[in-house]
Amino acid sequence: MDSILIPLLILIAVIAGVLLLIRSFTKRAAETKAGGAAASKDPVELAKESAAKLNQEQHRQIYSLIARGQGMAAIKLYLQATGEGLRASRDAVGALAAHPQPFTPEVPAKDLLADDDDEPERFPYRYRAIVSKGDVTREVSSNMLNDEIYGRIRTLAKSGDVEGAAVALTRHSDITIKQAREFIELLDD
């Protein structure tokens, strides 16, 4: 009886050790899966969401730190600016570094093509619109255009209001009405 007791105790100890290891691995896998759910988010979408949480100065400072290779300082600044956790800040700065996002301030909804006396808004970048048909190509480059305004101009042209589209294009660029008409004529029908 004595000869069976010792191997039996060893067997029980081994089984208990294996069960503890299995429990430890399943717990770690569950934690990794829960933490990985946030990390599995599309990095481009994460970069857009992260950039939207910053004001213009914070945005500029974070990208300045990223450009200088000071990732830890960028994470710290993001953490202070947003109040998110360390891991979320690390993921956000990583996404911002991998997928740079321009600063887009909250713009109140208004009719951007309204014919009022106000000067059109100037953006911090130049927008290029290029159209071509056959051998003819026209380009408009302006810091008073963006995707939304150009889309509205195209909609005006496609709806048959060629003159209104040309006037809107001259209002939001530095081209003449004649050049605007030539540009609008080249838009696909």
What's the gist of this structure?
This protein is mostly helical and 189 residues long. Helices cover 61% and strands 7% of the residues. It has helices spanning 2-39, 43-52, 56-67, 71-82, 86-98, 147-158, 162-171, 177-185; strands spanning 127-133, 136-142.
Commentary on this structure:
Among the domains are: 64 residues, no CATH class; 59 residues, no CATH class. With 189 residues, it is mainly alpha-helical. The longest helix is centred in the N-terminal third of the chain and has 38 residues. It is 61% helix and 7% strand. It has a two-stranded antiparallel sheet.
Topology:
Layout: H1 2-39, H2 43-52, H3 56-67, H4 71-82, H5 86-98, E1 127-133, E2 136-142, H6 147-158, H7 162-171, H8 177-185
Antiparallel strand pairs: 1-2
Helix pairs in contact: 2-5, 3-4, 4-5, 6-7, 7-8
**What's the overall geometry?**
elongated
Q: State the end-to-end distance.
A: 97 Å
Strand percentage lies at: 5-15%
Which percent range fits the helix content? 55-70%
Rg computed from alpha carbons, rounded to a whole number of angstroms: 30 Å
Low-confidence stretches: 108-112
Largest sheet: 2 strands, antiparallel
Mean pLDDT: 84
| Spatial strand order of the main sheet | 1-2
User: H/E order of the elements?
Assistant: HHHHHEEHHH
Give the structural class.
Answer: mainly alpha
Helix count? Answer: 8
Strand tally = 2
List keywords for this structure.
61% helix; mainly alpha; 8 helices; two-stranded antiparallel ribbon; 2 strands; 189 residues
